[in-house]
Amino acid sequence: MSRYVVTGGAGFIGSNLVRSLLREPGARVVVVDNYLTGKPENIHEVRDGIEVLEVDIRDYDDVRRAVRHADVVYHLAAIPSVPRSIENPVPSHEVNVNGTFNVLRACTEERVRRVIFAGSSSAYGDTDVLPKTEEMAPRPKSPYAVQKLIGENYATVFYSCYGLETVTLRFFNVFGPRQDPGSPYSGVISIFMKKLIAREQPTIFGDGMQTRDFTYVEDVAGLCRRAAAAPRSACGRVYNAGNGNRYTLNEVWETLNQIEGTNIPARYGPDRGGDVRDSQADTTAARKYLGHDPQYSLEEGLRRTLEWYRASLTVEQPALAG
Ligand code: UD2
Description:
Layout: E1 3-7, H1 12-22, E2 28-33, H2 40-43, E3 50-54, H3 60-67, E4 72-75, H4 82-87, H5 89-109, E5 114-120, H6 143-162, E6 165-171, E7 174-175, H7 188-197, E8 203-205, E9 211-212, E10 215-216, H8 217-229, E11 237-241, E12 247-248, H9 249-260, E13 267-269, H10 284-290, H11 298-312
Parallel strand pairs: 1-2, 1-4, 2-3, 4-5, 5-6, 6-11, 7-10, 8-13
Antiparallel strand pairs: 9-12
Helix pairs in contact: 1-8, 3-5, 5-6, 7-9, 7-11, 9-11
Bound molecules: uridine-diphosphate-N-acetylgalactosamine.
């Protein structure tokens, strides 16, 4: 019987991972979250099957108690968002860097078998070549990107220096159910969903021709679990956790209009500081060493996500014309 700890388990990706872990017979799942960006309602319906520890990863002693007896720790707790880290770098530094250090240190002390760390594709910055491979030199463009890069470097060093089995997965623009659309720092697809359902125009920063490797959250949760089960030889390394495709924001908004049978034009605003222009994962290493096998096309992921938002969002529907 395995005991899993998911830091950030009440967050968007974490709460989806928790559901995926609970499908394993006999799995014991512990959620560590301080509800800074996570939400109790994300884990409400699975609450009876899990243990929840309201712990802030900036507190080492609490983290240490939380990871005690864990077989695998999925370290997803973070303050995400590129613009948020530019506007207010201190909290995200404290959580993403100091908090990550605490988790790695606590897992070493408590002899946790393996830590899966949520890295970010933002670590690459702008590269001359696409898709992006793990050998490319990182060129972070924002505090958030630096923080995630420090986290993955620590993860690698904790493996080489202390023998803690770590795997870093660089997440590439994950989307899906339970992504919070409620803040200006929310992921673009969650914002698009909310706007589409409300029949409002989204604002696209720049010309909308920037590209992202949008990856459906189920595929990411699946890869997290595969990374936990991979042989030890796969540890101490960084892997791209993307889908392998890239789409412009204009294409995403157009696809959503098609799915919904609407024709709502986007508004355009100034470029967003710290933005990477293009992003696409080379998934060769994750496929080869971790068994990564993404199943969801962008369109299928968007359909499923839209269905979830439609059922969950309490947005006032405008009166039907005519
Ligand atoms: C970065 C990372 C991603 C993940 C994420 C966590 C890259 C390429 N990706 O995502 O892997 O770590 O950070 O936060 O660095 N946008 C609009 N209108 C809006 C909102 C966003 O046009 O209302 C644009 C935004 O300017 C950007 C794109 O949409 O060009 C994606 O933005 P995002 O905030 O969803 O994610 P991003 O790429 O910063």
